[in-house]
Specification:
With about 220 residues, the chain is α+β, with helices and mostly antiparallel strands. The chain folds into 2 domains: about 110 residues; about 90 residues, Immunoglobulin-like. It is built from 4 helices and 9 strands; from the N terminus they run H-H-H-H-E-E-E-E-E-E-E-E-E. Strands 1, 2, 5, 8 and 9 form a 5-stranded mixed β-sheet that branches. The two termini are about 40 Å apart.
Length: about 220
């Protein structure tokens, strides 16, 4: 999917800018395809800001300005209405410049987040209803995430490379003066608490990935 978007954002503008022997209809279609991912990004980002304005308005504002600049500059530079060549070149810079900035930001964020590992933990073929998944890198960095009632877990910022996995479940605490709902408890063998004894190993890469974990008695 990423490669397709990258091809559309880079390949279609080149097709739209090559006016020699390119039919006008093809250039218009290339312009629309080049701008479509930008429009989708604006709609998605605007929807996120509407749902959480306090948290996202300030961080999203620069991105919306960049995307808006790309839309106006892209239409002016790519649409086959034959504007002055110099102005068209300047508009093309204002389309390509924000595009490069956004790709650079995406690369930085992806590098900073390292790997995001999610999946489902099962024991005896059934989802584990509670507990914690801990992942340890070869450098000794440990990242953890809770297991939900449906057995799903997510662990963020896991260093890439070979890792060891430990899983722990905890019995509910004794009842106190104020009753509180406790997650369902399912005991598992104690060996799974130890990184070296669990025999659970994986290889983590950068970005989002699914790593389901099956536990045995």
């Amino acid at each position: 999917m990423f490669k397709l978007v990258l091809f559309v954002l880079l390949g279609c503008p080149v097709l739209a800018w090559c006016s020699a022997k390119i039919p006008v209809l093809v250039r218009k279609a290339a312009t629309c395809l080049a701008l479509a991912p930008v429009v989708v990004a604006i709609v998605f980002l605007s929807g996120a800001v509407i749902t959480r304005p306090r948290q996202l308005f300030l961080p999203a504002l620069p991105l919306l300005l960049l995307l808006g600049t790309m839309i106006s500059a892209g239409v002016y530079s790519m649409w086959p209405n034959e504007p002055p060549r110099r102005k068209r070149a300047i508009a093309a810079i204002f389309f390509v410049g924000p595009l490069l900035i956004l790709f650079a930001l995406a690369g930085i964020v992806s590098y900073a987040r390292a790997g995001t590992v999610s999946g489902t933990v099962t024991f005896k073929g059934q989802p584990l209803p509670s507990g914690k998944v801990s992942i340890m890198s070869t450098a000794g960095v440990v990242c953890s995430g809770d297991i939900g009632p449906d057995g799903r877990y997510t662990v963020y910022r896991v260093p890439d490379g070979p890792v060891k996995i430990a899983i722990a479940t905890y019995p509910p605490p004794p009842p106190g003066p104020v009753p509180t709902p406790a997650p369902k408890y399912s005991p598992i063998p104690r060996r799974y608490r130890d990184f070296d004894k669990s025999a659970l190993t994986r290889t983590v890469t950068r970005g989002w990935q699914v790593q389901d974990i099956q536990l045995e008695p």
